[in-house]
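Q: Given only this backbone (287 positions), what sequence would you predict?
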């Protein structure tokens, strides 16, 4: 133990540059993640980048704390310890043996009364086999309630090789930013089956293409992932877009698409080559 303490006292200076290097590395990672969070357009991207910022700053703080603890220990604590002479641990001389104590195991006590094991005799004749329980069907989760729609429109745009956006529905074409905007989409499953559980994104864009409202998620409130769609069926998909800019007033457009939640940069392409679908309606946002 004393040798280890002496070694720490002699080579403490090595820990200071290591802590400084670790602090610089994680500060750089935190700044990079913060810039990535500021440029993110999706909620999931912002959440991932925010978590990376917190982790990076936490690791940088850990290196600062380690450096402070090492400095305080080597400056105030260890020099005041009475370590005694730094002599190596004595070893046995050749030919000496260490006596090892022997242990005599006492026999386990035998119980005075033996309890026989009773085995029931097999009943004569055939043993009836209980009937197997009948299979029961697990009901599929119900889709969330569909909001009332007063404004509808046809879209009929293919997205990838597994989905077609048939139509949309809105409660009105004039809304206020003080309340979320419900949007109902109707998808039709095509012949191909998706191998990825894509998320649907619904973006509300201002006149200058600035993102002012959004909602992302698994279709139908998480109850209808795209890997479970069957060819020809219609999926009613409700989204409630929350406003980011409650002070905005004026015209706005809605764009819809799908992306891989594991890599939000990978979007499903529409039939015209873009990675989103613009709904054929202009929303007027009033105070």
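A: Predicted residues:
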């Amino acid at each position: 133990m004393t040798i280890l303490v002496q070694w720490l006292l002699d080579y403490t200076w090595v820990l200071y540059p290591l802590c400084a290097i670790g602090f610089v590395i994680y500060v750089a990672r935190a700044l990079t993640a913060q810039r990535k969070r500021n440029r993110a357009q999706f909620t999931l991207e912002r959440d991932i980048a925010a978590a990376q910022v917190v982790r990076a700053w936490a690791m940088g703080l850990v290196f600062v704390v380690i450096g402070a603890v090492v400095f305080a220990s080597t400056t105030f604590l260890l020099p005041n310890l009475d370590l005694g002479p730094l002599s190596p641990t004595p070893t046995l001389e050749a030919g000496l043996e260490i006596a090892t104590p022997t242990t005599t195991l006492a026999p386990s006590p035998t119980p005075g009364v033996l309890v026989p094991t009773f085995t029931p005799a097999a009943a004569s004749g055939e043993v009836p086999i209980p009937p197997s329980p009948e299979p029961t069907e697990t009901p599929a989760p119900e889709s969330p309630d569909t909001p009332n729609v007063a404004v509808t429109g046809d879209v009929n745009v293919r997205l990838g090789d597994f989905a077609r956006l048939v139509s949309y529905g809105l409660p009105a074409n004039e809304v206020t930013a003080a309340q979320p905007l419900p949007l109902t989409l109707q998808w039709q499953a095509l012949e191909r089956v998706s191998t990825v559980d894509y998320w649907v994104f619904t973006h509300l864009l201002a006149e200058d293409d600035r993102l002012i409202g959004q909602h992302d998620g698994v279709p139908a409130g998480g109850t209808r992932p795209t890997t479970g769609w069957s060819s020809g069926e219609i999926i009613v998909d409700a989204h409630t877009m929350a406003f980011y800019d409650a002070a905005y007033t004026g015209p706005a457009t809605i764009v819809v698409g799908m992306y891989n939640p594991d890599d939000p940069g990978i979007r499903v392409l529409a039939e015209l080559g873009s990675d989103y679908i613009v709904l054929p309606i202009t929303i007027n946002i009033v105070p």
